[in-house]
Every structure is written in C-alpha cells, then in structure tokens.
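Lecture notes, unit on binding sites. The following record was shown on slide 14. It pairs a sequence with magnesium ion.
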Amino acid sequence: MKVLTVANRKGGAGKSTCAAHLAVEAANAGYKIILIDLDPQQTLEGWWNKREKDDIDLMEVKSLNLSDQISKLSSSGFDLCIVDTPGDASENAKAGINIADLVVIPSKPTAPDLSAIGRTISMVEEAGKKFVFVITQGMVNTNLGFQASSALSGFGKVAPAIIANRASYARAMGCGDSASSEDKKAAEEISKVWDFVKENIFETSAFKHKKKLIA
Ligand SMILES: Nc1ncnc2c1ncn2[C@@H]1O[C@H](COP(=O)(O)OP(=O)(O)OP(=O)(O)O)[C@@H](O)[C@H]1O
Ligand SMILES: [Mg+2]
C-alpha cells in the first residue's frame, strides 16, 4: 500500500478537494482506497460521510503514532491511503507528511499562495519526502495557472493539468461526489492529475521490481 498525503501550510489551498477527487479517480480505476483525515475541521471526513457510493473507506485515527496503523491497513489489502492534513505546521500535519510515500502540494496560482509555498516545501524536505505540485482553483481564461506551473517547476514536478475554479468542485464537496459526475471539463483535468499522481507514487515500486529482475 502506498500513502499519498495532501499538504500545504496555507489554508484553503484546495487540499481536501484534491484529496476527495483523487480518491474517486483512484476508486474508479479499481484501487482499494482508504482515507485518513488528520484535520480537526474534518472536511474530507464530512465529504465521505455524505458519499452515497460505498467505494471508499475511511479510518478514524486515535493517536498520531500512525506507522502501526498504516502497517495494519497494508495487510488489509488496501492499495492506496490518502491522507488529508490541516493547513498549518501542527503535529497532525507533520504526522501526515511523515507517513507519506508521496506528498501532493496543491496551491492556488496567486502571489500570496506561491510566495508562502517555500515553508511547506521545507517542511516536506525536512521529513525527507518526495513531493509534487498541483495547481488548483485556476482562474479560467487567464494565464496565471501556467505562470504558476512554470514558477513551481523550478522546485519540483508539477501536474500537467490545472484544476480550475469551478462551481462543480464546490458542489461535489457538499454532497460527497466528484465534480467529474456533472462536469466534463473537470473530469478531464482531474483524470490527468490522477494519472500524474499515480505515476509518481507507484513508480518507485516499479523501479525496484525492475532492478530485482535484473539482479
Ligand atoms: N477547484 C475548485 N473550484 C472551486 N472551488 C474550490 C476548488 N477547490 C477548492 N474550492 C473551494 O475552496 C475552499 C477551500 O478548499 P479546500 O477545503 O479543498 O481547501 P483546504 O486546503 O483543504 O482548506 P483548509 O486549509 O481549510 O483545510 C472550499 O470552499 C472549496 O469548496
Ligand atoms: Mg482541508
């Protein structure tokens, strides 16, 4: 099982929306998914509670000693654990980053958000974790998203599609669904973001497997 943690110290970056939408993409692709919501605001858990489909599981955590709990999930047949974290540098946020195989850092393409992202990158690097960026809430018909992608590409890999600011995402979070059910454009971009995340989180094991065969 791989652990994908969504983190950004900046509030409202789009972490929970990203976590929920990636979970639906992964579940639709046949992966067995478990969610962990480490944010006391419980946005992801609230979304999951409203979800009608029984295709994604959620684990309540009782303590921040997560490694044992993660090992148990691994042996229960889950393929991917998606962890949502609070928009701060709390122990909860650190605990989520510490168990990650890959940290997804969503960011709005705006100057205040981009200039704050260095502190999240430092936090993830201090934990020695691999990370990628996803631009979220991109304004349609502006090139802010592309400018943000090119600025962030100096620090790490950036998802090839931008998650735009669309009412369908906000609605989906209110009813436990994915924007892709009602919005073709959202469906296209979130599917590209999932393909990118999937490659980045599962590539390490593919590489190990290849080396093993050669050896
Ligand atoms: N792509 C989007 N299009 C439209 N609205 C969005 C999009 N992404 C997020 N939002 C809205 O922006 C707000 C913040 O999003 P979200 O809760 O995902 O951010 P967050 O980083 O998890 O916030 P927090 O730091 O408070 O946990 C929510 O009201 C959400 O519905
Ligand atoms: Mg959140």
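Take-home: The chain has one domain: 2-214.
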